[in-house]
Amino acid sequence: MIELESVPELVDPVMVAAFEGWNDAGDAASTAVGHLDREWKGEVFAALDAEDYYDFQVNRPTVWLDGNTRKITWPTTRLSVVRVGGDKPRDLVLVRGIEPSMRWRSFCNEILGFAHELGVEMVVILGALLGDTPHTRPVPVSGVTSDADLARTMDLEETRYEGPTGIVGVLQEACTHAGVPAVSLWAAVPHYVSQPPNPKATLALLNRLEDLIGLRIPLGELPEDARAWQLGVDQLASEDSEVAEYVQTLEEARDTAELPEASGEAIAREFERYLRRRDGGPGQGPGGHATESGDGSYLRDPGGRTRPPKPPRPEPGRGKASDDKGAKGSDDASESEGEDGSGDRPEED
What we know:
The protein is α/β, with parallel strands linked by helices. The chain is built from 9 helices and 11 strands. The protein has a 9-stranded mixed beta sheet, with helices on both faces. The chain has a two-stranded antiparallel ribbon with strand order 4-5. The model is unreliable at 282-345 (pLDDT under 50).
């Protein structure tokens, strides 16, 4: 453990975590935490020792120049705090890093040590997976937990997933066993346009997080970036009849599956979000500054995007919900393949 600064005193803190790698399709989850850190000007107070958890042949350090001095940035996981004012102030502890290469249990224990020391009331872990979902429809975001009481009180799904897992699933289970309420939010990223960034998926995660923790999150240019991203993908799809036909197939499947849900709960949630933004609320401060990693670089020129690979022809039954999801919206979030295209799939704990 490398202590960077003294740990601050926090008000009703919630920990929000995301990790680059297997559980971060389109970089949607890590970019969401980066957005929170940037907009609310997070202050880093600790970092995990890179040598304890990372294989530097997998996640290599980078060399850069500070004037005439060469410096090295090591891959790690950093913790920062943001102070959110307003009528009901609440602080956030942001955990952002790379999925560790080794010692996952020790890694989670260090994170939990900070959660206990800071009095964290709940841990929210963001993830993103590749799915059979059309880019033209709202991004499905599933909220799952291993805590039956939390699932009932917060209108979440109790996970029933069995299979390979990533650091998101391991950390959620570690929180559960340690008695810390934990929730995972999963966004489904279209597998046929999986290259980052995906501001539309990032925006969907932030909207769901806003509903979950009751804070108004300043979105900055994200809505504009999401629209630009969709227009860019629309243009690319229109240039290939097979891609356009495939997208239409996904749209029809999605619309058919969601017909019964176009009612009460979803409409009420959108209306509540509208009222929060109209009336103002916590988090209405000015925008923040750019981070070193440049996470604010979203698509602005649709013509500058790399053409997505041509998707396979849809197979019978593809895109239907599987029993290992146990999360709302999972009908559209198939775990058909991992980010590396190997066929492995990220889990949804």
